[in-house]
Amino acid sequence: MIRRAVGFFDDRIGVAPGARKLLRYVFPDHWSFLLGEIALNSFLVLVGTGIFLTFYYSPSDAQTVYNGAYEPLRGLSMTEAYWSTLNLSLDVPAGLLMRQTHHWAANLMIVAITVHLLRILLTGAFRRPREINYVVGVTLLALTVLEGFAGYSLPDDLLSGMGLVIAYGVAMSIPLLGGDLSFLIWGGEFPGSAEFFPRLYIVHVLLVPVAIAGLIGAHLAMIARQHHTQFRGRIATERNVVGYPLWPGYALKSGGLLLVTAAVLFLLGGLVQINPIWQWGPYEPYLSTNGAQPDWYLGWLLGGLRLMPALEVQLGSWTLVPNPFWGGLAFPTLVFLTMYAWPWIDRRWLGDNRRHELLDLPRDNPRRTAIVMSYFSWVLVVFVAGSIDRLYFRSTIPYEAQIWFLRIAVFVVPVLTYFAAKRLCEELRDRERHPLRGWNGKVVRRTPAGGFETLELDEGVPAVDGGNGRPGAPSEEQEAGAGTGGR
Amino acid sequence: MSGSGRPRLHRRVRVGAALVLAVGALASLALEEDAPAQGGRAGLEQARPGGPSADEQPTAGPVERPAPGLEPGDPAMVAQGRRLFVDGCSSCHGPDARGVRGRGPSLRGVGAAAADFYLGTGRMPIDDPDDEPIRAKSPYDPEQRRALVAYVAQFGGPPIPKVDPAKGTLSQGLELFTEHCASCHQVAGRGGMLTGAVVPDLQESEPETVAEAIEVGPYLMPNFRGQFDQKELDSIASYVEYTKELEDRGGWGIGNIGPVPEGMVAWLLAGGALLLTIRLIGKRTPT
Question: Fewer CB within 10 Å, N- or C-terminus of chain A?
Fold first, then answer.
């Protein structure tokens, strides 16, 4: 059956050589290499559910009156954007399942990208020759966050509107350009002209998703061209690629993971409520709610706005730099610029400009691990500041005291994290212990002939792609590439 | 042999530990969600602790308490109220309810509405006059509270407002609540934080308490005296009643406080489940 199908295409367009190469493509195998695939799978779920949502959503601020089944909103005046999202959630069959799954998938995609980024940073996968792909990855993170915010803003419910007014305030705070720029984006003063929602909609369903899809394509193509990195092993060296071929092998793993990701997301979409817009009600510029929060991936921007003391740059009576600029724009710009520059920072600090096909274990390079963890803990403290009012609103610690505590923690926690992580890595490295794997030693046995042999405790040896599988020869060879035959 | 057995054991322990962590985190979410509901029930009981009225009155429907402000002519009750007042309140409010400088305000003219609100919700008496009064179990039984309210009410001031949620409209209530109350109490009445005060959630309140708070404006809350007509007051009370049992059409409501618990579910539940998955299907040792 498959043979005949392949034969049909091969006969006409000659796919066999390409297909063989593709099917024999070797994937190094480690659980942490699957983190990015969770993000990719979430993106696929997002596209699928998103297409469904476009059939019902209307990006219009025209006023209409709700007369549907949900009693607390009956008779209220609202925009068509909110009305259509309400209708989609409460009346369209499977509409709420699709909307909730879409939202959960967005939240999960950025979780997966974040953990994937952490993996890349901790194992040194961004090093030469993979700097370009790393930069593409960081851009994907930025675009996904932007895309998430646009989606969060589209329903025009109370939380959407409060998010947009903060975004407007931050845009206005850009020195010199802010006023004109925000007028350009919103088409006028907040809440903007009738063109704003259609613009936001096109950004959300066309511009950014196409950019994301294109960059994902580039991301994967570059991985295929350069081959995936791998951890040093008994066989795996700088000169080969050890792993499973796409078929039979890795395709089943990846396909299974796609199904599990989709299953988890649809289960959440059906069972756990996310963004119940009917409970928030429609937005008007004079309305607000206590404890309004962005989706988690923007919590660090809210935290930045909150932690920043009331600092402004003024020339006489004219404010050059309004306060929201620091937390809302300067901070995220600094965070992303640092991430973009990471391969070059790492190279400068550690003085290593060689090509690397092998990954470090996080403990192999205590200094890098400590710097990365310290950097993440810095962003994490600011992130916590964004949700502190919700996390601790039953505690008796006053809000102002919490903010001052966090303002100090922003400086103290990264320092403590640096030393804690460095020490932990050094201990692990020295004791040859793996925190998740337990004992990592070898058993040496004396043979009847009087010699010694090391017992191998690993499972079977999978396929190996020879040294010629990589473009560009590695500059040094650190150990003899044993057995490049395999299966 | 021992080498191959050990990792397997470790793996089970690790998977188990991860599951326990994820479940624990979610259980704390679930508790958080249940807390107001349980508190609500406890609050209702607190309003009539152990007294005979606790058995007589069903929990459903508007609570029909005899309005103490309307019995000014009962000298025995006022006298009992005075005794209790001198005993329990006068250290801050003065023996004749004229207040004590630096400790507590005069209660002459605050009326039955304020007295019933503060005593009924257990916000008074308070240990430290500098603290924010928060809902607590009242040390007085309903009979004693009625006496105290009668005592304070005889100095004049607004009576306990009448309110009937059944006569209000839910959508009008939502509109008014969003406009006037949500910026502090959160749109679904879940409370929150302000600089200088913790805003209470409203799941434990009774319609009467809501109307009293609107009339009185306790602590940092402004009073809305005379701003709402009877219909609007009934509507707001009806919406607050509604927020006790929100329609969670999307499944588990995770507290109805928005994206923070949603982010926790995304990280712990979805992220945790998929982390376990890739740990199971991916290799854990270098080749």
Answer: N
Chain B residues with beta carbon closer than 8 angstroms to that of A264: 270, 273-274
Nearest CB among B182, B265, B287 relative to A289 is that of: B182
Assess contact for A53 and A88: CB atoms under 8 A. Answer: yes
For residue A176, is it within any domain?
A: yes
User: Is residue A439's pLDDT more than 70?
Assistant: no
Tens-place pLDDT, residues B60-73: 434 444 444 445 55
In a domain, A53, yes or no: yes
CA dist A224 and A245 (Å) reads: 13
Q: By CA distance, what is A289's nearest residue in B?
A: B183
How many Cβ atoms from other residues are within 10 Å of residue B208's Cβ? 23
Distance CA B2, CA A425 (A): 27
Set of chain A residues whose Cβ sits within 8 Å of the Cβ of B17 = none
Supply the range of the domain harboring residue A11.
2-360
Q: Which contiguous run of DSSP H or E holds residue B55?
A: helix B52-56
End-to-end CA distance of chain B: 20
Beta bridge partners of B197: B194
Give the phi and the psi of residue B16 in degrees, each rounded to 5.
-60, -45
The Cα–Cα gap between A59 and A195 comes to 9
Residue A472 lies in a domain: no
Q: Taking CB atoms and an 8 Å limit, are B187 and A72 in contact across chains?
A: no
B233, two tokens? 């007051």
Residue A379: half-sphere exposure toward Cβ, Cα within 13 Å: 21
Tell if the CB–CB gap between B184 and A290 is shorter than 8 Å.
Answer: yes
- Angstrom distance (rounded) from CA A313 to CA A334: 19
Span B254-271, pLDDT tens digits: 988 889 999 999 999 999
Q: Which two tokens stand for residue B188?
A: 């679904």
Q: CA-to-CA distance for B148 and B152, rounded, in angstroms? A: 6
Q: Which of A236, A27, A361 is nearest to B287 (CA)?
A: A236
Whole-angstrom distance, CA of residue A119 vs CA of residue A130: 14
User: How many CA atoms does the CB half-sphere of A387 hold within 13 Å?
Assistant: 21
CA separation for the pair A191, A345 (Å, rounded): 42
Contact A305, A327 (CB under 8 A): yes
Residues A439, B265: Cα–Cα separation, whole Å? 33
- For A173-323, list the strands marked E by DSSP: 230-231, 241-245, 313-315, 318-321
Helix (H, G, I), strand (E, B) or coil at A84: helix
The closest of A308, A301, A290 to A406, measured between CA atoms, is: A308
Q: Is B166 on the interface with A (CB under 8 A)?
A: no
Half-sphere exposure for B76 (CA within 13 Å, toward CB): 1
Nearest to B195 among A243, A271, A399 (CB): A399
Per-residue model confidence as pLDDT tens digits over B178-199: 999 999 999 999 998 888 888 9
Q: What is the pLDDT of residue A463?
A: 52
Q: How far is CA A220 from CA A254, A256, A409, in A?
A: 14, 19, 39
Its ipTM equals 0.86
- Structure token pair of residue A390: 């919700």
> Which chain B residue has the Cα nearest residue A279?
B188
Rounded to whole angstroms, how far apart are CA atoms A81 and A243? 50
Whether residue A481 is contained in a domain is answered as: no
If you search the block for the tokens 């990208």, which residue do you land on?
Answer: A113
CATH of the domain at A42: 1.20.810.10
Task: Measure CB to CB from residue A90 to each of B171, B185, B249 and give the nearest one.
Answer: B249
With the C-alpha atoms ordered A87, A92, A96, A102, is the resulting torsion angle positive or negative? negative
Cβ B10–A437 below 8 Å, yes or no?
yes
Is B239 touching A (CB cutoff 8 A)?
yes
Closest among B187, B184, B241, B178 to B211, alpha carbons compared:
B241
Torsion angle (degrees, nearest 10) of CA A293, A296, A299, A301: -110
Query: Rounded to 5 degrees, what are φ and ψ at A6?
Result: -65, -40
